[in-house]
Fold this sequence. Notes:
The complex is a heterotrimer of chains A (about 300), B (about 290) and C (about 325). With about 300 residues, chain A is α/β, with parallel strands linked by helices. Chain A has one domain: 3-Layer(aba) Sandwich (Rossmann fold). Helix content of chain A is about 35%, strand content about 25%. Chain A contains 11 helices and 10 strands. In chain A, strands 6-7-8-3-9-10 form a 6-stranded mixed β-sheet, sandwiched between helices. In chain A, β4 and β5 form a beta hairpin. Chain A is globular. By secondary structure, chain B is mostly helical. Chain B contains 12 helices and no strands. In chain B, α2 packs across α12, α4 packs antiparallel against α9 and α9 packs antiparallel against α12. Chain B is globular, with a radius of gyration of 24 Å. Chain C has a two-stranded antiparallel sheet. In chain C, α4 runs antiparallel to α9. Chain C is globular, with a radius of gyration of 28 Å. The chains are: A alpha/beta (about 300), B mainly alpha (about 290), C mainly alpha (about 325). At the B-C interface, α1, α2, α4, α5 and α6 of B face α2, α4, α5, α6 and α7 of C.
Amino acid sequence: MTIRSVRQKVTASPAPNEAEAVAIQVPVGEPSASAAGGAALGDVAITVRDLSAWYGARRVIRDVSMDIRSNAITAIIGPSGSGKSTLLRCLDRMHEVVPGARSSGKVAYQGVDIYDPEIEPAAVRRTIGMVFQQPNPFPTMSIYDNVAAPARFNGLVKGKAAQDELVERCLRQAALWDEVRDKLGHGGTSLSGGQQQRLCIARTLALQPKVLLMDEPCSALDPVATLQIEQLMSNLKSEYTIVIVTHNMQQASRVSDITAFFNMGPDRAGYLVELDDTRTLFTNPKNQLTEDYVSGRFG
Amino acid sequence: MASDGAAVFAPTGGARRFRANLLVVLAVVALLLALIPLIAVFGYVFVNGIRSLLSLDFLTQDPPADLSATGGGVRNALVGTLEMTGLASVIAVPIGLGVAIFAIEVGGGLARAARFLIDVLSGLPSIVVGIFVYATVVVTQGHFSGFAGSLALAIVMLPVVTVSAEEILRLTPRPIAEGARALGLARWRAILSVFVPIGLSGIVTGVLLGVSRAIGETAPLIFTSLGNNFFTLDLNQPMQALPLLIYRNALNSAYASARDRAFGAALLLILIVFGFNLVGRWLTARRRLAGSRR
Amino acid sequence: MTESARAPEQRGALDLAGLRRRRWTGDLAFRAILSALTVAITVVLGLMMIESFISASPVYQKFGIIGFVTGSEWAPSFTIYGAWPFIYGTLVTSFLGLLIAVPISVLIALLLTDLAPARLRGPLGIAVDLLAAVPSVVYGLWGLLVLVPAMRPLEQGIAGTLGRVVPFFGPPTPGSSYFAAGVILAIMIVPIVSAVTREVFASTPRIQREAVLALGGTRWDVARTVTLPIGRAGLLAAVVLGLGRAIGETIAVTLVIGNSDNIGKSIFSPGFTLASVIANEFNEATETLHPEALIALGTVLLVVSVIVNAVAIGIRNRFTGGSRSGF
């Protein structure tokens, strides 16, 4: 655990316009050709430019540039050690929470550099929510409070009625309401693993974020719970920008609109190999490595 | 002592089995040697103190001015002990918790300095703590007082509370800590509303152990609260405490009445101290069990 | 594009994206409160220590630091103050206490980590820990009324035989003595030394212990080849911590040591330790410089226990830090 501040060295790009000028346009297939039933993809929500990250002296991702579209599910796949989770953690400034961790490069949400010194990391994390691999509900809080307390602490909801309404809405959105409506006062850890994970999603939704980052949210869950979370993601897509890290390629191809394939380079740092709409990436990859990976030849 | 490979691999011969058994016997003897005093002290104090303790007067009356006279009780000392230890907790717990959180949350030179002082304090004889408070508070005020006694007891408690709180808070599971950060909670909010509740039973254990240590202290009170043969609730007056009363009566133990009073008070004190101690341990044990079940 | 030209636009964008809400006020206030608290406690404790030295300074000025520490006479009515009789008493009683307590503690620690059935370890451990919870004054009361009379025949026996040859074990033996204080100290430091030793022993790698057992070793082999060699540095730290406790123990010692300002030639003579002389004489210290001299004894005690504890912490850190050079 660390709750200690870690000094963060980020080299912000000199000016947004210049950054745009040098931005590498990552090819994305025609929005209309989207895999997920032809739904139109939104605008670019998050821009990543030349992002590198280190743990101590070890570089874990190198020079990643990519665009993440709003109202779509972007899946990040790749073998272990390819920096998928680190990339995700850089998107809401959770990477710097680990002692000795730092990053460089630019991450912008709606054109705003989230590493700007003017920006409060906590505000970034409220806007760009994260769901972790292991469900982590607060053990001393009830189911109700797990959802209500973070929103209340952040001043997003006032009054009992508004709070009740928020809790119900978020639990419904997370498809958990019917299972827990009669035991809202029970401890959050009394639920099953899949329910706990949906509780954590509800807890994040209560902050009314714009983006949901999900770090292998199903890896600790059984197949039924996994299916429920996947359905949940599809339902949430219309309102949220979702980025999911997964090492389950079936899952990526099932749920995502766009897929990014990461690999570990010779220097043991992860880098972006290819990004495309999911169907194209899985059926007609441009890069030999991607083809080898998605066809199960390595990883 | 180099590791003796041959001895390890050889089949257990008579001599080696004998040595192994001898070690067990010696260890059991050692344990008995250590436990005999515990049983003897407790048994002796119980047998000699229970009669005093069973009379209601013992708790509701003050001792006679002349310690050699019979009768009277230890009300002034019991109340003084509870009042001074209570105030000591009120002083030591927030400070100890605050310094522990500061050490984790902020760190840096100031935290190291404070932690160093508290480490020094935890190894310091309690009588030296009494001298600290005498040299500052008592000398400045010009008289002994229950307040000075409370302060000395608070300083005795402080390291116990701080060290245990810091250890417990450092154990906050990393996923929970990251969850709080990822929800954009302010740090003070995360600590007070998430981490402290998780570690609460451990923190309470630390407080109870601190109280059980402070409540039995005599030496720091000699120079601070001094003792008082009369009942008082006024923290500005010299104040009696159970350990002080036992000490003064032990010095006069040639008199049967003083001896009886000392043993009655000693039994009362032991029961209070063991009570706090065992409740604290029980909380810790319960937390461990809960942790292993999870 | 200049900074000033871009700033307002940037601000607007920040607010638009909802990223710039309440800034750090809550955390700043929280930090400020914690910092103030920590500064306050650090300053207060530091001041108390300094103030104690200042209170003692007249004595140091009159006799000199060396003169005070090595002075072997303590005569308040003649305004002569030398700390040596009490330093001597502290050394003798602490050493005696450790001599008795350490072997017992090590065996108990071994018993509770390697030897006893797992079921019994918990309750036995609590029983030993409770020994540490018994207030000092209760040990003193018991020591004065039970232990001292009970040991008098033993003391007289040793003094009458061995004591004829070695004056260190000779008479007088009124009962209250350095020896009685050493025994009471031993009882009181066993829990401390055995608790720390137990912790150290328990931290020896379980794989190694199980390896010895799996290879057909006896429990003695486990103790001898794994627990003791690996635990040695930690054991040393435990012993030094016990020493620190013994040096500072006050009330129990005061009640059984016999209270004499002179250096006793035999361990069966009455004497004083640093802590016990302060406790015993403080409330009746009316002679010139007497309170100051007692506070000066307190500063000696402070310095000695800080050194002893620093050594213990140093050993332990070296031990837990993984570097075992020198041991």
